[in-house]
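#structure-requests
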Amino acid sequence: MPAALFLIFVAILIRIVPPLLHVHHDWMGNFSPLASLVLCGAVFFPKRMAAWVPFLILLVSDFTLNIFAYSTPMLSWELVPRYFIFAVIGSWAFSKRETLGRKPMALLGTSVAASVFFYVATNTVSWVGDAGYAKTFAGWAQALTTGLPGLPSTISFFRNSLVSDVLFTGLFLICMAVTSKKSAVQSRPVVAV
C-alpha cells in the first residue's frame, strides 16, 4: 500500500502543481489521472476507504485549485456532474472489485472505458450548460472535438486524460503486484532444515 499511496501523492501533484505555478502547456492540459484514482481506489483500497478517500482527494484538490490557481468559488456547478460521474465509475468498479483486482487487462480496459465515459458525459454537460455551444448535434460534436474558440480542443484534453488514466492504472497494477509478491515472500513460513 505505501507504493500506491505514493502514486496517489504523485497524481495529486501532477494535477495541482502546474496550475498553481501558472505553468500551462497545451500538451499537458488535463494530464490528470482522476478517473484512475477513483477506479483504482474502488478496486484496491480497503472497503471502508474505497469510496471516501478518492473523493476527499478530489475535493481537496478542487478546492485548492479553485481558490489558489483559478480564483473561482470553492464550489461551482461544474463540480456536481463531475463528482456524480466519478461516483458512477467508482460504484461500478467497487461492485466488480474482486474481478478487476485479479484481471489486470480487465482493469486497464475499464480504465479506458472510464476515461471515455467521463469525457463524453462531462463534455455533454458542458454542451448543455454553456451558452457558447449551439444546442444542436453540430454543437454537441463541437463540444466533443474542438471545444470553444480560443481554448485548446476538447479532444486534446481527452487524449491527455486517457493517457494519464491508463498510465496510472498500469502503475497501480505494478505497485499492487510488487506489494503482493513482497507480502507473499514475507508470509511464507520459515522451515528449519
